Amino acid sequence: MRLAAGTPLLRHGESGTHCYAVLAGEVLVSTTTSQGATVVLGRRGPGSVIGEFAALDAAPRSATVTARTEVTAVALTAAELEALLRGQPDLAISELRRLSRQLRTLSERYALRNEELRARVVNLLLTHLDETGQDTICSTRQELADWVGVTREAVTRTLRRLEEQGLVALGRSTVTVVDPAGLSRLGSA
């Protein structure tokens, strides 16, 4: 099959029982956050297999794949992909290595985003403490999330980690800084 630039090949959330081998051109792999923002996961070119997760485990597609340039690709059913991997051990090992690199990259991105979020939350708490002299912020988790630009769930997870470290105490719609020096050290790290 041939696809013009900008044409979606796979869509996040759709079911799929096949994958594609990219013969020529480049595709963009992306996903959408719960807030509707697009996050680019990577680019793939000739020799890449895309859509293999859904083909192998029959779960919904985990990403959207769009032709970045004109693309030539061949479709493979799950059975064809499995036969190809079984019959070509070097290809199977190459795919395992690629998937391993991809998982490591995504894990590193996730860790960096968590660090960035923690820094924003710590900065918010330290700024409040500095500006008001009060060690307690009376705000809902949603209000805090809106201030740092993330979801309520992400802020809640971050605050719980800070509480586990003994830096803050969480109450209903309150966050109390219990170790300002420790929080400050964390903020400057």
Explain what you see.
With 189 residues, this protein is of the alpha+beta class. A hairpin with a 2-residue loop joins β10 (168-171) and β11. The N and C termini lie far apart (51 Å). The protein folds into two domains: 2-97, Jelly Rolls (Sandwich), CATH 2.60.120; 113-188, Winged helix-like DNA-binding domain superfamily/Winged helix DNA-binding domain (Arc Repressor Mutant, subunit A). It has helices at residues 52-57, 78-87, 89-132, 141-148, 152-164, 180-188, and strands spanning 2-3, 8-10, 18-24, 27-32, 38-44, 49-50, 64-67, 71-77, 136-138, 168-171, 174-177. The chain has six helices and eleven strands. The longest helix has 44 residues, at 89-132.
Summary tags:
189 residues; alpha+beta; Jelly Rolls; Arc Repressor Mutant, subunit A; four-stranded antiparallel β-sheet; 26% strand
Helices and strands, with pairings:
Layout: E1 2-3, E2 8-10, E3 18-24, E4 27-32, E5 38-44, E6 49-50, H1 52-57, E7 64-67, E8 71-77, H2 78-87, H3 89-132, E9 136-138, H4 141-148, H5 152-164, E10 168-171, E11 174-177, H6 180-188
Antiparallel strand pairs: 1-8, 2-7, 3-6, 3-8, 4-5, 4-7, 9-11, 10-11
Helix pairs in contact: 2-3, 3-5, 3-6, 4-5
Q: Report the biggest beta sheet as strand number plus sense, adding barrel if it closes.
A: 4 strands, antiparallel
Any guess at the CATH architecture of the largest domain? Sandwich
Query: What class, by secondary structure content?
Result: alpha+beta
Mean pLDDT across every amino acid position = 86
What is the 3D form? Answer: elongated
Q: Please estimate the helix content.
A: 40-55%
CATH fold assignment of the largest domain: Jelly Rolls
